[in-house]
Predict the structure.
Amino acid sequence: MAETKNTTYAGIMRDLQARKFAPVYYLMGDEPYYIDKICDYIAENVLAPEERDFNQTVLFGSEVSAAQVVDVAKRYPMMSEHQVVIVKEAQNLKNTEALDFYLQKPLKSTVLVMCHKNGSIDKRKRLAATIDRVGVLFESKKLRERDLPAFIENYLRAKGASADPKSQQIIADHIGADLSRLVGELDKLLLALPDSDRRVTPAVVEQQIGVSKDFNAFELRDAIVNKNVFKANQIIKYFDENPKAGNIYSFLPMLFNYFQNLMIAYYCPQKGSSDALAKWLELKSQWAVKDYITGMRNYKGVKVLQIISKIREIDAKSKGLDNPNTPPGELMKELIYFTLH
């Protein structure tokens, strides 16, 4: 494993499926989804069911010391080629010197899995260097908002389904970057699709997830991009009357991300080229480029800077700063009016 040095999720999974096991996997980061996927695969596939009783151990970092983890890792498997040792809450392990010493010459028969969520070990420390040298040091990072549609597309494709770009964006805007929740909602959609038509459409999203195909974050963003004042006000009115459908706390990040990217688009040396602009903004699909081309046509650079400043002001007010009593709905109306006029 040390020779291939696959430290991406896809690379690690390829090696696991090929039964190329590293002596240690240190899975860390702020996105628990990939940590759980790798750990669960190892727990369910390295050993046969009849081998697990004697050869698979789950420990918790808050309940054991690093020395105790090493004691378990040093055991030889019983009537099996491997033993699996899973340490959850690895961030709570104290005095990791014993672990570093063990990893200088780990047992090849032991697959040690360390799960460290909501944080990472210091990569400058000796332990991190040792893990990286002999095994897999994997950091699971939160996906950026702009990467969610591509994640949705790839997840559905792997399940034999598809979704049009609009549906992908509606789902991404509504669910956000919590991948575990996002995958749960996608699985719900997949169950509802008939075998004869495996396409996810806005109508399917509305029916299964409860997001209106006409009044949602995507449509609000589209109205703002195209300076459609009537449509934007319709959607804001709908949200004001149906708070569960959308609120300022979910839309502010969406609008900020768009106008921040729009500001960056102005600095593209070839902003007239869709391909160059997509590369400049690191967009995963050409479909998203048109919104920035339209945005540059409808909003001057100075206005974009003013909008970004206004979004920051409204964000502060929504959190109670310099705002004793203005409700969120009125703040949203204030922001939309400023943006479109």
Summary: Residues 187 and 273 are 37 Å apart (CA to CA). The two ends are 59 Å apart (CA to CA). The chain has 17 helices and seven strands. The mean pLDDT is 90.
